[in-house]
Amino acid sequence: MTTHTLSNIKISVLDLAIVREGGNASDTFKNSLELAQQAEKWGYTRFWLAEHHNMPGIASTATVVLIGHIAAGTTTLRVGSGGIMLPNHAPLIVAEQFGTLATLFPDRIDLGLGRAPGTDQFTAAALKRDEHAAMEFPSNVEELQRYLSEGNKNGRVRAFPGEGLDIPIWILGSSTDSAYLAASLGLPYAFASHFAPAQLHNAIAIYRRNFKPSAQLQKPYVIACVNVIAADDDYNAEKLATSFKKMFLGIITGNRKQLQAPVEPDEDFMDPMEEAALQQMIQFTFIGGPEKIKKELDNFIEITQIDELMVTSAIYDHEARLHSYEIVSQLNK
Question: Which is an annotated GO molecular function term of this record (predicted)?
């Protein structure tokens, strides 16, 4: 069996369309497009956008619209959702939207599906999300697959455009439930280890052990998403990472803000209990210069034997963020 390392697996980008303090959504969208264009040049495989709602620091609410924007500004990069929170949407609408994207950008669109609301309970209610929606996720995935299939030509409800298009569906997850579903449907699996590290190893094992080949996929395929803050040296990476740590601290405390400017690494901005909770949540976060990043990512890839590494980087300065992704791409050669 080939040993997977950073230099021989695919790498991809997860973009949350983060809005930094002092900026706005317009700036964010311009920066996302530039990142996608550079990622394409640097050899990244895909560029996914996440669906979130009611968060002042994240602008990827209209995920499908942003996917179209990024795909229109690139030529070879695969662009998709990481993911569409399916219980927020009717499967037919998703089939039509992604059918439209796949018609506009053939062989370049990925459809990643998640079961979480991507927001708080009050916003979920405003989205008209049914309280039983998560339980219906497996059947909704199968309904969506049916709309996109050639076999639905005699169906009473059909997706135009969408029907018969080869749009890869991915199951996203942060728990073992998603692993069982991806395995049973024979779909590729992307795990959100960048914010939910606890069940990564168990979920991957379950997925591989229970995988059933399908028309889309003959053998298991796993992406793990991790946080990477890379710079020319360890000190500067640690400084850049203070913005990222403050963002996650806001998630833990419920005090969400736009992405803050970095501070000195030794500045005390959280108490010991907050730091312990933070470290548990960001277990799979890699911060440092090229040598440190390569060593730690190689170790992570060797242990998990993932097929593809997805990187997300919450860095305040746009140029520094671009440079972080460039460093990872150079280590991938």
Answer: oxidoreductase activity, acting on paired donors, with incorporation or reduction of molecular oxygen
